[in-house]
């Protein structure tokens, strides 16, 4: 389960966000507000030649003093090198080589990771000639692109997807469920993992993973056997919040990619916040199973309806995908810690579930008959056949005469029918309409 993470680095205003939007085919960034300053922290999914990967735009800074400016960019580049598998270094042909480009290149020349140099804003022959000066940065082959028009990005992406490292895993390691605990800083991830494995150190084994990487720990007790991806407390936290926030984004992406099921931990004293939603959306985009853990439940003054009320609020925020288990725990007192584990294993099984084609057709064709897709321009849509696709995560194809006219509300209706009849709790499912 090797992760595939790309970080776009470079000084501000070279077109990193435009390139990010082109690769992810989106116009939107997930915005994370950090101590009163709004920053665009772009992280999303890209796909090229059938290869899925995560991509992160490291963003720029606006600081008056040039030396501070350089220091901040250096920090981001170092963090990107630590966490990404491939680094995409973007420069601007209009500006030529600047001192900041030199500074970033100096750091990148020392890394053993794959570095791809892309010269942006190259949209005519003269600029192709101008771009040649970037060979002097000493980073090997360069790609002339225009992130605005898309010119040259195909060759760049061909090289990119061919560059991902392939991690060999033992058969046993591949078969075991990979669970991970994700969430905002200071929400109790370390306490939860310690409650699980802290005392029983004799029954866990660390499986190859450098200290820079997430540590995969084998947990084998109480009838459970799985890998838990421990990202908590691996490195001393920097004093700068900016660092921390960017670092936690990178770390979350890597952790989620290396998991089958993510235990998303939120703080009961604060409820579900914007950053929790960002992490939840990342889990769903990556098609991973999810269990929501509401930690610090021991600190809440409770009445008979407290649990129901907070669970309803959380489900409302998670909509439309809110068929998710929510468990109220206390890592400190170990309340429901094992229940959380059992639920995560159930979600893992749901994610691998296969439904017989005959059973699917019997139930879904009846649902289609009861509520057929609305006709469009006098044309009637007929759905004839349903099957589960042979994908690693649950995906279903419905074959119709006019699939292009079926809208999202009907897709949600079919998804709800599937969820109503078969247990896919905690698992994102995909529904496709195809030409019969």
Description:
With 436 residues, this protein is an alpha/beta fold. Helix content is 35%, strand content 24%. The chain is built from 13 helices and 18 strands. The chain has helices spanning 16-24, 66-83, 99-108, 125-131, 153-162, 171-175, 189-198, 241-257, 274-285, 306-318, 337-351, 357-370, 408-421; strands at residues 5-9, 31-34, 37-40, 42-48, 51-57, 86-92, 114-120, 142-144, 178-183, 204-207, 215-221, 224-230, 261-267, 289-295, 326-328, 383-388, 395-400, 430-435. It has a seven-stranded mixed beta sheet, sandwiched between helices. Helix 3 links the parallel strand 6 (86-92) and strand 7 (114-120). Helix 2 packs parallel to helix 8 and helix 12 (357-370) packs across helix 13. It is globular, with a radius of gyration of 24 Å. It starts with a strand and ends with a strand. 38% of the residues are buried. The model is unreliable at 28-41, 61-65, 199-213 and 233-242 (pLDDT under 50).
Could you give a quick summary of the protein structure above?
The chain is an alpha/beta fold and 436 residues long.
Beta strand count: 18
Our estimate of the beta-strand percent is: 15-25%
Give the terminus-to-terminus CA distance: 34 Å
Unreliable segments (pLDDT under 50, ≥5 consecutive)? 28-41, 61-65, 199-213, 233-242
Global shape: globular
Structural class: alpha/beta
**Helical percentage:** 25-40%
Rg (C-alpha, Å)? 24 Å
* Lateral arrangement of strands in the main beta sheet: 10-11-12-9-13-14-15
Major sheet details: 7 strands, mixed
What's the rounded overall pLDDT mean?
80
Q: If helices are DSSP runs of H or I spanning 4 or more residues, what is the number of helices?
A: 13
């Amino acid at each position: 389960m090797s992760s595939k993470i790309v970080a776009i680095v470079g000084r501000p205003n070279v077109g990193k966000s435009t390139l990010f939007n082109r690769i992810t085919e989106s116009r939107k960034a997930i915005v994370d507000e950090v101590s009163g300053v709004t920053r665009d922290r772009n992280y999303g999914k890209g796909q090229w030649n059938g290869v899925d990967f995560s991509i992160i735009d490291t963003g720029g800074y606006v600081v008056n003093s040039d030396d501070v400016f350089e220091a901040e960019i250096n920090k981001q580049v170092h963090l990107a090198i630590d966490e990404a598998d491939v680094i995409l270094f973007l420069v601007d042909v209009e500006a030529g080589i600047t001192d900041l480009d030199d500074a970033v290149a100096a750091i990148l020349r020392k890394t053993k990771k794959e570095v791809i140099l892309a010269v942006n804003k190259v949209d005519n022959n003269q600029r192709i000639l101008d771009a040649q000066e970037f060979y002097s940065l000493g980073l090997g082959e360069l790609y002339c692109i225009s992130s605005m028009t898309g010119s040259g990005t195909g060759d760049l992406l061909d090289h990119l997807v061919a560059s991902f490292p392939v991690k060999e895993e033992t058969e046993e390691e591949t078969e075991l469920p990979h669970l991970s605990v994700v969430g905002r800083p200071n929400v109790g991830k370390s306490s939860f993992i310690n409650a699980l494995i802290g005392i029983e150190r004799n029954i866990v084994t660390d499986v190859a993973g450098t200290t820079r990487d997430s540590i995969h720990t084998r947990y084998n007790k109480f009838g459970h056997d799985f890998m838990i991806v421990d990202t908590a407390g691996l490195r001393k936290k920097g004093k700068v919040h900016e660092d921390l926030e960017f670092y936690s984004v990178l770390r979350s992406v890597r952790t989620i990619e290396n998991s089958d099921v993510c235990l998303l931990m939120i703080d009961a004293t604060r409820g579900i916040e914007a950053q929790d939603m960002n992490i939840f959306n990342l889990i769903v985009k990556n098609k991973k199973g999810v269990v929501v853990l509401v930690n610090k439940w021991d600190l809440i003054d409770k009445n008979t309806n407290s649990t129901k009320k907070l669970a309803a609020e959380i489900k409302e925020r998670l909509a439309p995908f809110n068929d998710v288990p929510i468990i109220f725990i206390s890592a400190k007192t170990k309340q429901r810690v094992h229940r959380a584990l059992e639920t995560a294993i159930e979600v893992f099984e749901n994610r691998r579930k296969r439904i017989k084609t005959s059973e699917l057709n019997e139930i879904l064709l009846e649902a289609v008959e009861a509520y057929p897709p609305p006709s469009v321009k006098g044309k009637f849509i007929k759905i004839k056949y349903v099957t589960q696709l042979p994908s690693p995560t649950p995906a279903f194809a419905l074959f119709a005469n006019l699939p292009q006219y079926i809208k999202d509300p009907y897709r949600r209706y079919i998804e709800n029918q599937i969820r109503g009849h078969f247990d896919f709790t905690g698992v994102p499912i995909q529904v496709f309409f195809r030409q019969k």
